[in-house]
Design a protein that fits this description.
Blueprint lengths: L1 H11 L6 H19 L3 H7 L2 E7 L6 E7 L6 H9 L6 H6 L5 H17 L2 E3 L2 H7 L2
Antiparallel strand pairs: 1-2, 2-3
Helix pairs in contact: 1-2, 4-6
């Protein structure tokens, strides 16, 4: 099991960055995801909506690669980050885990956000790189 997990992380977090490589990373992501999680109907449906891709942050101009909603500039880490901000535990979670405290919920949501951030790579804006070299 650890071998598959290491392979997953090693294949996804890679220093090479061309568009061709992003397509390859997305294919590897899908393949490794299914190897790790199995080819269930639920997992195949999940992958119809996710991809490993690149997006440019409007405010900073930086490019980030990570797991995102397919065809949209929405990182899964951003969705989880938004969940962290919920004041209340979502009802289905509260019903399934009635003893879960708000602090425990926030800790779990934070952990998932950080794990997703580990799978991302942000390239600095060209202006930042020039400024740093002055």
């Amino acid at each position: 099991m650890w071998s598959v997990q290491r392979t997953f992380l090693n294949k996804i977090i890679n220093k090479e960055y061309s568009v061709r490589n992003l397509k390859e990373k997305n294919q590897r992501f899908r393949q490794i995801f299914l190897t790790f999680a199995s080819e269930t109907e639920e997992n195949l449906e999940c992958l119809k909506h996710l991809e490993y891709g690149k997006l440019r942050e409007e405010e900073s101009g930086k490019e980030t690669s990570g797991i995102k909603i397919k065809g949209k500039d929405i990182l899964i880490s951003d969705i989880m980050n938004a969940l962290e901000g919920l004041d209340d535990i979502p009802d289905p979670v509260r019903e399934y885990y009635p003893d879960l405290t708000d602090r425990e919920w926030h800790a779990a949501a934070r952990l998932v956000t950080v794990l997703l951030l580990l799978l991302e790579k942000t390239e600095p804006d060209v202006a930042d790189m020039v400024h740093e070299n002055i």
